[in-house]
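Much of what follows relies on a compact textual record of a protein's fold. A complete example follows; check for yourself that the lines match position by position.
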Amino acid sequence: MDIIISNQIDNLIGRGVSLLNGFEAELRGLNAPGATVARDLFGEAAGQIAAELFGTRKAKSYGKKATRTWLEGKKRDAIKAVTANYYQQYIPWFQDTCRLVSGISISASNLVFPGRYAPLLRRVKRAEAFKKLETRIRHVITVLEELRTHDLVFNASLPKQIASPKETKFDPAQALHKLEDILRKFIERELSKTGADWWIARIPSEIRSRAESRRQKQEAVWPWHPVSSTNVMDYLDFSDYRKIILEPTNWTQVFAGFFRAPSFIDSRMGELEPIRNDLAHSRPSSPMACDKIRLYGEELERCTNRTG
């Protein structure tokens, strides 16, 4: 990774962590047990004063309740004030993050100017969908930390693309077909290392049964015609890859070393699955869907090429 990009990401992460810690510390102060006890004691004292003034228990209860309601309102106002203060600090940090991300891309052999910054920028801007400020800050920090694991380049340093009539257009269906082939071979390669009975021992029974049934039906329809594939792995569903990888024993003993976390596989495959289903039914893919296929496909392929 370019050292300048690395330093800028580290700086943004540091600013984000400092912002989050400061904000959460002030919120904890407002919700601390001592503050709660003080409000209760203040309410009790106000109730006692009201009882002495009006000479009834009802006056004491009303005075205590009214005071506590007033204090809770003050607490809410204080939380709003703290949040507003930190939101003003969050805005320039968020803008600086968007500015950096819009100028970088994950390195790839066929990458040309202006790069592939759009899917990265969209992931950062998803923070704006969260209601709580602390959740927004955490989301941006998480994206920055994930970006730090990639080989990043400045878009301005990329070679200019030369227009050519022979230039091939991105084919999302072909790209997903390639990814499926990579995942099938990867799963078979790694699980076969666990023993000759890996298909029985490592593939969940319901997935195994469905795949075997599909192969049998394919062979039965035209028995005199050779089937396109005899490998039962070729009869898995797209959703099966995620289930096989995340099966607890498989994850712990085989796949954890290839991927950062179960959520990495779960989120990428979960977002790709409806796109794959649309393509299977000849529905067109949106530009965002194509971006996801490119980005997630490259990420998953890199992971499968690691040494577990």
